[in-house]
Amino acid sequence: MSDFVIPLPAVTTIPVASGGSFPVRRVYCIGRNYAAHAIEMGHDPDREAPFFFQKNPNNLDSTGTFPYPPHTSDVHHEAELTVVLKAGGTNIAVENALDLVYGYALSLDMTRRDLQGEMKKAGRPWEIGKAFERSAPIGPIHIVSEVGHLDSGAITLKVNGELRQQGDLNQLIWKTSEMISYLSEYFELAAGDVIMTGTPSGVGPVVKGDVMEMEIAGLGSLTVTVT
Predict the structure, then answer these.
(1) Which of 4, 7, 190, 214 might form a disulfide with 88, Cβ 3.0–4.6 angstroms?
(2) Nearest 5 degrees, angle CA 200-CA 57-CA 158?
(3) Residue 20: closest CA among 99, 87, 103, 80
(4) Where residue 38 falls among pLDDT bands split at 50, 70, 90?
(5) In terms of Cα–Cα distance, which of 96, 95, 74, 78 is closest to 87?
(6) DSSP characters for 136-175?
(7) How many degrees, rounded to 5, is the angle at CA 183 between CA 122 and CA 85?
(8) What global pTM score does this model have?
(9) In sequence order, what are the residues at sequence separation of 6 or more whose Cβ sits closer than 8 angstroms to the Cβ of residue 189?
């Protein structure tokens, strides 16, 4: 018999392209990790210390749809490379960090920009703008043994066929190994952790009925419809 006093919550998983499911433990997101995006958001693009916020594991969604959330009239797309870990630790050296990576996926950090802006002005946390239900559409994971480590390659996002976002993974201010190392100084990383690596410039609003098509060279595409 179980000692749980309520039914055990479901484990969030991400499908793996070659088969199986990846169980999610935590979701870390880095802010302003492309210089051009930092500029468009009104910030200095110089390499400053990285900062992170978190989404909830069950914000990840692989259904190919994004339900327009309540209490907002300004939801933005942010196309991102996501890194998933097969192991963790603390104080991980940069030169060892990529050994922890299981694979990579395409993802979207959907943002209630109006609510995020209100929180910024008030000096309050961003969760209401970032960590709402199904706010992180994600594609299948491509494992390292099949795609290698991605340090360059085009990343794009189209909305209804119109190019909105365009960049290259080599433009990341903080590289994957550096993000893992930095996070491990402040958190104990572990298998199942997910890191969303930031978005290039061109973020903008979507409305119901829009179709977002994201591509990363070497990882294929992700199509998500706003419902």
Answers:
(1) 190
(2) 30
(3) 103
(4) low
(5) 96
(6) EEB--BEEHHHH---S--EEEEEETTEEEEEEEGGGBSS-
(7) 120
(8) 0.94
(9) 85, 88, 89, 90, 92, 100, 180, 183
**Residues β-bridged to residue 156:** 166, 215
Q: CA-based angle 175:177:180, to the nearest 5? A: 105
φ, ψ (nearest 5 deg) of residue 189? -75, 160
- Residue 66's SS3 state is strand
Question: Token pair 């002005």 is at which residue?
Answer: 121
Q: Which residues on adjacent β-strands are paired with residue 155? A: 167, 216
Asked if 143 and 114 count as a contact pair (C-beta separation under 8 A), the reply is no
Segments making up each domain of the chain, as ranges: 13-226
Task: Give the pLDDT of residue 48.
Answer: 78
For residue 29, the one-letter residue type is C
For residues 195 and 179, the answer to whether their CB atoms sit within 8 Å is: yes
**Confidence bin at 35 (pLDDT 50/70/90):** confident
Rounded alpha-carbon distances, angstroms, from residue 216 to 26, 34, 87, 159: 23, 15, 24, 15
- Are the beta carbons of 211 and 56 closer than 8 angstroms? no
Cβ-count burial 56-80 (b if 16+ within 10 Å, e if not): bbbbbbbeeebeeeeebeebbbbbb
Task: Map tokens 């992170």 to a residue.
Answer: 52
At position 124, the amino acid (one-letter code) is R
d(CA 137, CA 130) in angstroms, rounded, equals: 12
